[in-house]
Amino acid sequence: MRLRKQGTQPALGLVWLLVAALPAVGGWRLAGPYGGSARSIAIDPRQGSLLLAGSRDSLLFRSDDAGASWRLLPFPKGGPGVFNSLIIHPTASGHFYAGLDAGDSPDSGVYESTDAGEHWSLLPGLKGFPIESMAMWPQDPNILAAGTAKGVFLSLDAGATWNRISGINDPEMQDITALTFDPADSKILYAGTPHLPWKTMDAGATWHSIHTGLIDDSDIFSIRVDPKRPQLVLASACSGIYRSDSGGEAWVKIQGIPGTHRRTHIIAQDPRSSDAIFAGTTLGLFKSPDGGKTWRNLTTEQVNWMVFNPADPRVLYLATEHAGIWKSADSGETFRPVNQGFANHRLSQIASDGRRLYASSSYEGLFGGVFVSDDGGLGWSLRANEDALGGRNLNSLTALAAASGRMLFAASEDAVLKSSDDGKTWAALPVQPRATVGSRTQARFRIHALQALKADKTLLFAGTEQGLFLSATGGATWEQVKSAGIKDVPIVAIYVPPLGASLLAVQTRNAVFISQDAGRSWRLASLPDSSYYLYDLALPLDAGDPLLAGTSRGLLQSADGGAHWKLVTDGLPAATVDSVRFHPTGKLEAFLVQFGNVFRSVDGGSSWMPFPSDGLEHSSIRMLWFAPDLPGRIFAVSAARSALVFDLSQPVVARQNDHVVTSSQ
User: 158: alpha, beta or left, given left = phi > 0 and alpha = psi -120 to 50?
Assistant: First the structure.
């Protein structure tokens, strides 16, 4: 596999100096890292440059230039849904169908767009039905089938109405993981389930199991009917790949793919030759030139779906689990990522060492881990994947500049890691936080959080299952903080100010503790009652300014260091606040996010006005963040869309009633 080399990035310092001169762009901009999870992909049969790609969290992307760039479509729902199947109408390029599986939510169903994805409507008849697969009969696009968690449904009028064509009480025909029509007869339909494949010859009036030759209880992921020889059927299953020359009545297992790759999510044929078979498996793409007799491994990343360009079948696209969209122009011999604008990384942290920005993601294999940006967060590249991190997934990331040079620290559940070369290589610290429980010393235990505090000297704090630990030696040695209420209790979060200070806060499972002397002494800062679940805590630049707490019931403000709190309702709904941050240089200036809407305060959080939020729709924002050395840019870290940025120099307007607020006020 050969990937295209990315160009070099400009020096960060130069870009940061020119932030104020950036052109005004309305709203928030998707900044990457690009790539991530792609679950489905479709190509326009008439215009090979038009593609759709679906991912987790109900995100849909469109490309009009053969994957060179992608744009997030304004799909009406955000959240946990997954697009398992997409269809582009064969004669109307702007007519799309998208099958959404959002569980038992009423958002599940088949969505239709007739204006190239700018507007969507949920088709009646399948509202609330999780969609696992879809198929369109090649000879008549009005005939559609939908495989749901509750059976097979058929439409003869382009989705306007749907009829269930599988038994409502048939336990074998509930989760329909794959669907395909016989290309010559719309009454013949194949269905894959978690328990073998099924077939109807009479448009669903009757179904029969077609399992002879299959390993019993095989999950069926995809079914392919040869368009020229309909009796030739291929099926991919958890137990391998199968071939039938009798319309599914008898199957023979195709040998050659290693058993470790047995979960084949998608099976496809080269449009130029039915003997050229492609198999997208859990651990990569395989190709056979001879009907499955021999195979070659082309890639190593999990393939969820694939499509060929009808005008040039040498061009194929893969929807991969962690690496986004890949494209080949030579029948799979080489691939390159085509992810500009496509982002579905789940970032956990962003950090800055004053020169570069770093971001971390988890559970993304070779294509996630630690990313780096040299241009203030507008472009990112992968610096260290999970292999470089020793197979670990990070829950915390922090950067600092010390006398010995810039260093990065990160935490996984079982170790504190350190990098001295801008995140390229990492090693677990030889001395880890440890606690003495009774007469026994626990050398390893779960680490929840890691933060650096730049006070009179740089201190490293680790929140663990056994309490809070402090290192003043860059992680070489650690000591346990033994203050009352903190000693030996789980520390689940650590909060520091936007710039160096002595103020520090930690969160246990039941309380918040504040320190004003860099962790030497602590006092309890109790929230009003246990119904206020803490999501975020903003510490101010000056210790005497108010504290702000984002909770499940709204924003709390404390003017006395956490001794007392009041609920803020001036300009702000009393609802969940996901994240709140003070500006790193603007005294008493703060920002927060509620359900994707951003608000701004200039009086320490006492009152709030809406801030421009266009571009954040349905983004599931986890946190807002500022790079201390880049105060003109605010970051929003999304649960699914990587990072988004807003340049505060933009003259963008937000409105609340008749009051106009600009981002520069």
Answer: left
Report pLDDT for 7.
35
Nearest to 158 by CA among 89, 220, 260: 89
Supply the range of the domain harboring residue 83: 35-343
Number of domains in the chain: 1
β-pairing, 343-344 with 35-36?
A: parallel
Give the mean model confidence (pLDDT) for residues 535-563: 94
Q: What is the pTM of this model?
A: 0.85
- The 3-state DSSP composition of the chain as helix, strand, coil percent (nearest 5) reads 0, 45, 55
Tokens of 527: 């929230």
Among residues 626, 543, 545, 612, the alpha carbon closest in space to that of 579 is found at: 626
Has residue 361 been placed in a domain? Answer: no
In a domain, 459, yes or no: no
- In whole angstroms, what separates CA 14 from the centre of its chain? 31
Please tell me what DSSP assigns to residue 93: T
Distances (CA, A) of 333 to 3, 286, 294, 329, 482: 11, 11, 16, 8, 60
Is the preceding omega at residue 33 within 30 degrees of 0, hence cis?
yes
pLDDT at 56 over 90: no
Instruction: Please indicate, yes or no, if residue 84 is contained in any of the structural domains.
Output: yes
Exposed e or buried b per residue across 153-184, where buried means at least 16 C-beta atoms within 10 angstroms of its C-beta: bbbbebbeebebbbeeeeeebbbbbbbbbbbe
Average pLDDT over residues 347-357: 88
Half-sphere exposure at residue 438, Cβ-oriented, CA atoms within 13 angstroms: 1
> CATH no. for residue 141?
2.130.10.10
Token couple for 244: 């039938």
**Burial tier of 118 (Cβ tally within 10 Å: 0-12, 13-18, 19+):** exposed
State the Cα angle at 347 between 344 and 349, rounded to 5°: 165
How is residue 320 written in tokens? 């991969």
Regarding beta strands 590-594 and 579-582, do their DSSP bridges make them parallel or antiparallel, or are they unpaired? antiparallel
Q: Report the sign of the C-alpha dihedral through residues 124, 125, 130, 132, in that order.
A: negative
Cα–Cα distance for residue pair 436/521, rounded to 1 Å: 21
d(CA 235, CA 366): 28
Contact 557, 601 (CB under 8 A): no
**What are the residues whose beta carbons fall under 8 Å from the beta carbon of 520, sequence distance 6 or more?**
none
DSSP characters over 183-234: TTEEEEEEEE-SS-EEEESSTTS--EE--TTSPTTPPEEEEEE-SS-TT-EE
Strand 467-471 relative to strand 479-480, pairing: antiparallel
In a domain, 257, yes or no: yes
| pLDDT tens readout for residues 193-251 | 988 899 999 999 999 999 898 887 678 999 999 999 999 999 988 878 899 999 999 99
For residue 611, the number of C-alpha atoms closer than 13 Å in the C-beta half-sphere is 27
- Residue 111 pLDDT > 90: yes
User: What single string gives the DSSP state of each residue in 595-623?
Assistant: TTEEEEESSTTSS-EEE--TT-TT--EEE
- The answer to whether 67 and 74 are in contact (CB under 8 A) is no
Q: Which of 106, 9, 93 is nearest to 46 (CA)?
A: 93
**SS3 (DSSP) at 290:** coil
Helix (H, G, I), strand (E, B) or coil at 177: coil
Q: Which of 387, 385, 441, 392 is nearest to 416 (CA)?
A: 392
